[in-house]
Amino acid sequence: MVGWILAIVLVLGLSLTLWADAQLNRMEAVPEQRVANTAGTNWLLVGSDSRQGMSEEDAARLGTGGDIGVGRTDTIMLLHIPTGGQARLVSLPRDSYVTIPGYGDDKINAAFTYGGPQLLTATVEQATGLRIDHYAEIGMGGLSNVVDAIGGVELCPAEPINDPLAQLDIQAGCQEMDGPTALGYVRTRATPLGDLDRVDRQREFFAALIDEATAPNTLFNPFQFFPLVGNTANSFTVGESDHVWNLARVGLAMRGGVQTETVPVGGFADYAVGNVVLWDLAGAQALWDTMR
């Protein structure tokens, strides 16, 4: 009897995995020109501000504004999973001034607008010298849906934030946030350091999301687990060769603890493309060297 139960559980688990994998949206993210292979496993994690697929009601509810076509990248993070030791999550500010292959120097998020995941991946590889092994992207509506599927996430703003543009009005201190509130929290720039504060909040959110999604009360609660799997699969765009079990590896790696940081910033400047973030080149190079 026990054997039959285990067999049924195994078949159901395999079927769910294959179903979820089939729901993932896929795009070519591997650039034609690659840097040499580097140590560990590197993910390029992208939060797109695309409104594609959202209804007017959803856009109004989430405070995202109208459709902007192919979208831009509100969030760019590099997750490094070493062969041993703690994972590292590094934010690349979207206004970072880098060289985009074929387009010259520009803000890093312009690479996504010019050439989608492939060009963004090529740009990050060239800027960091690190080989990107996997790609995952989630849009605004998808992020909100995933948060709501697990019943919200706990986030801890250090100060009150009131940003009508992001439909956000929260107090300081740890609190449970639903999908629309969490989306506003990671999008707002209405704090003293603007985008630099925002990348800190984005890492905080991502770590909290993974922590809640992989918690036993989520994994063993069918009323949360199945909506989570369905919403996550439908909400993510991954590389052509990426699978749901690769995403599960991200959750396991971060569940064991993750070191978070922003690429060292040397200052700001005004160029033809607007106000940009300048990396501390020596500090950034030292950071990438620790991940090779």
Automatic annotation (TrEMBL):
<dbReference type="InterPro" id="IPR004474">
    <property type="entry name" value="LytR_CpsA_psr"/>
</dbReference>
<comment type="similarity">
    <text>Belongs to the LytR/CpsA/Psr (LCP) family.</text>
</comment>
<protein>
    <submittedName>
        <fullName>Transcriptional regulator, LytR family protein</fullName>
    </submittedName>
</protein>
<feature type="domain" description="Cell envelope-related transcriptional attenuator">
    <location>
        <begin position="72"/>
        <end position="213"/>
    </location>
</feature>
<dbReference type="Pfam" id="PF03816">
    <property type="entry name" value="LytR_cpsA_psr"/>
</dbReference>
<dbReference type="InterPro" id="IPR050922">
    <property type="entry name" value="LytR/CpsA/Psr_CW_biosynth"/>
</dbReference>
